[in-house]
């Protein structure tokens, strides 16, 4: 350590990279006072050298190839802000570690796929691999879990982990705007991934959940065992019915310890209107950890965007500058346990179902019979208006039931002549 500057190389100068440059330029004095030495950007790499990023880079070394930056001997820490699970981002991080440099990254895709291996590589050399920005943007959720809740056994972590989806669902509900329009706006604001299908298909939230699970439960990062559903099929009709029933629809990530193993899933859920999760709107994320001694702890904040994400990146740089070190995923990488996945079909809980049903006598009796045959008990039933001979929405909610029974009943219901579209099922979580 000492008072020598911490020399930072930044690979990737897009939304987050430019945000980090701006933050370091703005807060330089404050940070130097806090860590006892300056943090200096010595090298950068991006695709377009000529783009104006609002910061003078004339005295900074420029690399067309980020992998070359990763072996620059005037760099102590490589900040990887390119993105992608493989390719250039992975090679940059591996090269940096191989050259004895600490790494800070916001790249959840990379960590979800290679987190355990990279942590092993970093820890073997006494290096830091830090990623606060990778999960829930500016919210200090990794530090909160890993350091703040270090004394606890975590039972469950759940929350809103994708700002783009939450922004879309919020705008659709409050303004009635079209899905595609709102997505374009989220992209313009710098919230979405380079390929926004990662956001709307739930993959980005699943990457983050896989990382959270590892930190919370001391298991190897296991993205392959996350059940993933996105928000493409959520219609204005479902959002409206959710409101009538006293719920909001949110895309949630849930990691839960069960008697069958650890359940990891990302899917749209209905949550009660009065809950913290329901009240978390727009680009905000919320993460709730339930643990044995601390009980429930909730963190809420901006999950995407230049400023909040840069704040998390620089917080990791502060740790490196002052020599504050912890195992990458809370437990030394070599001691992370393999994850035993709990089958999602074992979930017990309530369900919302929407059917598009031809309005004719006897149909509802057939639906009710299919539910009865699987021991699924109905809690409420809604059919508004009549349109004899035409398809009308029919909505029902269930009491607690096993997912496997629900799915069997829906397979029968979906096969009825009078049911016109694939039944839509949304899990209800009483958070
Ligand atoms: N945008 C956000 O709100 C958040 C983004 N992240 C993550 O941060 C990372 C960066 O995201 P954004 O800044 O939004 O992306 P972006 O697309 O705005 O920026 C990517 C940067 O990487 C550079 N790049 C691409 N290929 C390159 C190559 N071969 N060599 C050198 N540079 C290359 C581009 O020129 C660009 O400067 C991703 O991993 C993303 O998932 C994490 C949290 C929030
Ligand atoms: N695309 C992501 C960015 C932050 O991780 C999101 O929308 O949450
Ligand atoms: Na974070």
Could you explain how this protein is built, in words?
The protein folds into 3 domains: 6-134, Rossmann fold (3-Layer(aba) Sandwich); 141-304 and 327-344, Dihydrodipicolinate Reductase, domain 2 (2-Layer Sandwich), CATH 3.30.360; 347-428, 2-Layer Sandwich (Alpha-Beta Plaits), CATH 3.30.70.260. The chain has helices at 15-35, 66-69, 87-98, 108-124, 141-148, 163-175, 179-188, 197-200, 203-217, 236-244, 276-279, 306-322, 363-373, 403-414; strands at residues 6-11, 39-45, 61-63, 77-80, 102-105, 129-130, 154-160, 227-228, 247-258, 261-272, 284-291, 295-302, 348-358, 378-382, 391-398, 401-402, 424-428. It contains 14 helices and 17 strands. α3 links the parallel β4 (77-80) and β5 (102-105). The model has no long low-confidence stretch (mean pLDDT 96). α4 packs parallel to α9 and α13 runs antiparallel to α14 (403-414). 1,4-dihydronicotinamide adenine dinucleotide binds at residues 11-17, 45-48, 66, 81-83, 88, 106-108, 133-134, 137, 190-191, 193-194, 304-305, 309. Sodium ion binds next to α5. Belongs to the homoserine dehydrogenase family. It is an enzyme of class 1 (oxidoreductase).
């Amino acid at each position: 350590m000492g008072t020598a500057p911490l020399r930072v190389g930044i690979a990737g100068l897009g939304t987050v990279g430019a945000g980090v440059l701006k933050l370091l330029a703005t807060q330089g004095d404050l940070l130097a006072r806090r860590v006892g030495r300056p943090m200096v950007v010595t090298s950068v790499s991006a695709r377009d050298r000529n783009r104006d990023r609002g910061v003078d880079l004339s005295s900074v070394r420029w690399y067309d190839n980020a992998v070359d930056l990763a072996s620059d001997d005037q760099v102590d820490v490589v900040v990887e802000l390119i993105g992608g699970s493989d390719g250039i981002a992975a090679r940059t991080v591996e090269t940096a570690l191989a050259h004895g440099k600490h790494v800070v990254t916001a790249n959840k895709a990379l960590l979800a796929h290679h987190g355990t291996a990279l942590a092993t590589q970093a820890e073997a050399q006494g290096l830091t691999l830090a990623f606060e920005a990778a999960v829930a943007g500016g919210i200090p959720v990794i530090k909160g879990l890993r350091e703040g809740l270090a004394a606890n056994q975590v039972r469950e972590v759940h929350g809103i982990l994708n700002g783009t989806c939450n922004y879309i669902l919020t705008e659709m509900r409050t303004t009635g705007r079209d899905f595609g329009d709102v997505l374009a706006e989220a992209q313009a604001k710098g919230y979405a991934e380079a390929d926004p299908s990662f956001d709307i298909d739930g993959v980005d939230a699943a990457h983050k959940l896989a990382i959270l699970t590892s930190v919370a439960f001391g298991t190897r990062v296991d993205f392959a065992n996350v059940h993933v559903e996105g928000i493409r099929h959520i219609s204005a009709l479902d959002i409206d019915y959710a409101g009538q029933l006293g719920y909001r629809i949110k895309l949630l990530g849930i990691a839960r310890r069960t008697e069958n193993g650890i359940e990891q899933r990302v899917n749209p859920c209905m949550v009660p209107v009065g809950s913290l999760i329901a009240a978390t709107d727009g680009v905000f994320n919320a993460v709730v950890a339930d643990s044995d001694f601390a009980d429930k702890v909730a963190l809420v904040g901006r999950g995407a965007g230049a400023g909040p994400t840069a704040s998390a990146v620089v917080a990791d740089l502060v740790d490196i500058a002052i020599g504050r070190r912890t195992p990458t995923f809370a437990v030394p990488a070599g001691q992370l346990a393999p994850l035993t996945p709990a089958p999602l079909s074992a979930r017990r809980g309530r369900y919302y179902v929407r059917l598009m049903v031809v309005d004719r006598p006897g149909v509802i009796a057939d639906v009710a019979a299919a539910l009865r045959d699987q021991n699924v008990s109905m809690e409420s039933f809604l059919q508004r208006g009549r349109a004899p001979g035409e398809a009308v929405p029919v909505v029902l909610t269930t009491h607690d039931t096993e997912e496997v029974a629900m799915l069997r009943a829906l397979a029968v219901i979906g096969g009825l002549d009078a049911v016109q579209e694939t039944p839509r099922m949304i899990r209800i979580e009483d958070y």
